[in-house]
Amino acid sequence: MIIFGTALLAVCHLLGIFLGDLLGQALDVKTNVGGVGIAMLLLIFARLYMQKRDMLPKLTELGVEYWGAMYIPVVVAMAAQQDMVSALRGGPVAVLSAIAAVAICACVIAAINRSERAHVEEESAPRLHDNPLLTEAE
């Protein structure tokens, strides 16, 4: 079942790369614009969607969590392959799209964090005077 988590990641990655290429063409930049970030957002949304509808078995969820944790090093390795100098020479479109992608990701992450319910267990507050020798009358 863990392999299904890997398959979900692969589908999100391929779709993200495709959408990043389309975005690059739309912005007249000859590179992928935010494909890996789009893929990560798709993975987050797919996981949340499947969890809400109980379509995500525990072992598949473990596979998704594993690859979700491994995704950041993959993003760093892929970013190292991109030619930043030519992107900056391509004009302000690349810089503006990067800033927009970061801003959109920050807003989406904030929205996801607000939508999840915090499961905080209430603990009894410590009493100031727990001395059994003291009574309420004093």
Structure description:
The chain crosses the membrane at residues 34-50, 62-81, 93-112. Keywords: Membrane, Transmembrane, Transmembrane helix. It comes from Variovorax ureilyticus. This is Malonate transporter subunit MadL. It is a single chain. The protein is elongated. It has one domain (2-115). Helix 1 crosses helix 2, helix 1 runs parallel beside helix 3 (58-81) and helix 2 (35-52) packs antiparallel against helix 3. It is mainly alpha-helical. The N and C termini lie far apart (64 Å). It is built from five helices and no strands.
Key terms for this structure?
138 residues; mainly alpha; 70% helix
Question: What low-confidence regions span 5 or more consecutive residues with pLDDT below 50?
Answer: none
Quaternary structure type: single chain
Distance between the termini: 64 Å
Major sheet: none
Outline the secondary-structure elements.
Elements: H1 2-26, H2 35-52, H3 58-81, H4 84-89, H5 92-115
Helix pairs in contact: 1-2, 1-3, 2-3
Organism: Variovorax ureilyticus
Keywords: Membrane, Transmembrane, Transmembrane helix
InterPro entries: Maln_transptMadL (IPR004690)
